[in-house]
Specification:
Elements (H helix, E strand, L loop, with lengths): L3 H11 L21 H31 L6 H29 L8 H27 L6 H27 L4 H8 L2 H15 L1
Helix pairs in contact: 1-2, 1-5, 2-3, 2-6, 2-7, 3-4, 4-5
Length: 199
């Protein structure tokens, strides 16, 4: 039964970088009077973040909790499958929010940045849906095969955790970053993200 234990832990470790959403903000805020239209845009995007951030965090925690030494493969599979679905749903919802918000007003290249962010978020949603399919297809009756499958998923997960930050980072620059950093909902997510990465 030893084969899966370190791999389960690896899956948990791969997620430790997965507190994803608005790390780029990290509480920096400028006190300019700003652009009212851009502030309204930032509020629309930021107000959608806490619920999705909480969903991603809960999914991360569920996977870490499932990655215990004595947890049966079938339990790990069931937990991970639901968690990956929740993550996929969260990124899809964020992609829709950024799409509906439109390009950030008064920002050079705003339309391209917005579309790039939407494409990246939708891509993450698809990737997590693929991970769900992958974990659903693992053989829980063969411990060694299950461990190998988890190893592959842990590797993919580590890469996804990094790209989650990149998805919004390009959008969050300059005036957009300042406008988002002034929104209480974005500040809340930034502080929960920084706590998660230091714990």
């Amino acid at each position: 039964m030893e084969g899966a234990e370190p791999v389960n832990k690896k899956l948990g470790a791969a997620l430790s970088g997965g507190a994803v959403l608005v790390l780029a903000l990290s509480g920096c805020s400028s006190s300019d009077d700003g652009n009212k239209e851009l502030d309204a845009w930032a509020k629309q995007v930021c107000d959608a973040l806490p619920a999705q951030d909480a969903k991603v965090d809960a999914a991360n925690e569920a996977i870490k909790k499932a990655a215990t030494d004595d947890n049966a493969p079938a339990n790990v599979q069931k937990t991970d499958s639901k968690a990956f679905q929740d993550m996929s749903d969260a990124y899809k919802a964020l992609g829709q929010t950024v799409q509906q918000a439109g390009p950030p007003p008064g920002v050079d290249g705003g339309q391209k940045k917005q579309q790039d962010a939407v494409t990246a978020l939708n891509g993450l949603a698809t990737s997590y849906a693929d991970l769900k399919k992958q974990v659903d297809g693992l053989d829980t009756k063969d411990q060694a095969k299950f461990a190998d499958g988890l190893q592959d998923i842990a590797t993919r997960l580590g890469k996804l955790s990094q790209s989650g930050n990149a998805a919004l980072k390009n959008l969050e620059q300059g005036d957009v970053k300042s406008a988002m950093a002034q929104q209480p909902s974005c500040q809340k997510v930034a502080s929960s993200s920084s706590r998660a990465t230091t714990s």
